[in-house]
Here is the input.
Amino acid sequence: MVTMCKVKFFPADREIEVPVGTLLSDAAQQAGVGLQVPCGGQGRCGRCAVIVEEGPVRRRSTARLSPDDVAAGYALACQTSVEGDVVVRVPPQEKIERRLKQGKRAEEVALPFPYEVYDQSVRKYVITLDPPSLQDQMDDWSRLQWALARRHDIRGVQASLPVLRKLGPALREGEWTVTVVVELSAWDRPEGPPRLLDVLPGEHLESLWAAAIDIGTTSNHVWLVDLISGKVMSQQADYNGQIARGEDVISRIIYASKGNGREELQRLVIETLNRLLEQAAQERSIRTDEIYKVVVAGNSTMIHLFTAIPPESIRLMPFITVVNQMPTIPAREICCVTDPSLGLRVNPEATVDCLPGIASYVGADITSGVISSGMCGEEEQLTLFVDIGTNGEMVLGDCTWLISCACSAGPAFEGAGVVHGMRATIGAIEEVWINPQDYEVTYRVIGDEKPRGICGSGLISLMAEMFAAGIVDKSGNIDLTLSSERVREGEHGVEYVVAWGNETASGADVVITAVDIDNLMRAKAAIYAGFSILARSVGLTLDDVGQVLIGGAFGQYINVENAVQIGLLPDKPFDSFHFLGNTSVRGAYMALLSQDVRRRVTDIGEMMTYLELSADNTFFDEFNAAMFLPHTDESQFPTVMARLEGR
Here is the structure.
């Protein structure tokens, strides 16, 4: 017989009955209590800490909790099970705010090719039919098929049952004039057959809507596109709701493997996308069911979770996806496994086209990024394309050949795994300057408010300044002998104070610790080792690279000089670096508009060779060599060494 116990959560004032042995994090989820588990329940981030006010619990781990914390009742919810009736207090959870406010109008997005609606695979046609009579007994569907074949040479058109249900009423309401939405072909069925997506009474040719979507690990982007003009009419973005269940892909894969975790993660991302689709539709005064085509880009894990395909094999040897090239899917099939009523909020017949990935850790965000970056243009020069995030994904080549790899940089550059790390939101320190004479700090904060922590770009800037000022040595060790009160032994070991408590929003000092620096060193070393191995695998060096293209939202905020100074990016002339922003959603937009571009994305995916770094015996050596500032081999960073000597 299962023994049950009651768990009360405050201040939400929720109560739930669960079996003894249930984790507090699971109980919170079942009770509908908002509790973030950024590491996916592995007990390594410490951000799900709660206070057990009453009742017996069993702590499996107290990582990131001090003895005083445990004595005060703190427990990691993902590592603590209930042994009886308990009362739990949940501290305020991190509030996610957008760094940039969404503009009233979408930015103009230039296309590298001329757009004609006649090249589009989804079209609208106005059809006027002869009404039936006692002498003309042809059924409605045959009558419409006959008109499409005779007037527009569209033959063999197919329709789903829900669309057929709309046909008769629409014809009669429109007095035998209707607007039909037809998909002529898709990338995986270039010869058809055509599909009837919708039938509307009367004439409605003023617009034809579609969406380009980027499902990022951190943020989701939706571009609403008018297929008549080819223009982006609304751009919406928000943090991926899955963040609360894991800040990196590995954490989410682990979470997905537990209980109904996969279904929950799918629900969270669909809810995020639906919110963005609704916002975009409201901005243009349309309904979301007027969106008839969707192209989706994202890394392999995000695509698997979006479609509720089990992602576990991605993190298990030999690291294989279930599918790299998803067939086109009617939107009605993109629905939550546990709640079929919650689906992607577009027209149910809309085609959802997930762009192709390459391997477990090089996904559609990279094939999409390559096509939109222009690296496969007319000039065939050796190019390094990189997307720096929780995964460092990179492609090297001149588009007569391409080779790719991915390294697990971890979420350090997203602010996770760092004591006072945070996302690039209001209150994050985003840039730092240190006086090398007295080691005093000047910083810039997002939103011009009191600092609450340090985001990824701020951490890169801080490391570069600490190295240049002599606060840390080449190994990243903080020099405790410096005559500055900012350098000290703290609660988490040796640390450097970036902002004093009287300057911060919380009243507590914002610091960077020796452990934080080690995490950042590992992240930058993994990325640089990936660059080095890619080049060497084809008999080249990084000196042979003509340009470095940096995609991803995070890349926009990196200071090149700082990134080169710590050995995150190769030492090349600054004008060889090009920051492109979100190349993933831009590539999805281009593939949405052009069938030729869509075919080229597939061609790029088929051309690209994937190098699995875990199978490369030299990765460990390259990684260790890069675990210094800027690198063990100083000859690879001549301008950095010259600049440091000058200081």
Notes: The first strand starts at residue 4 and ends at 10.
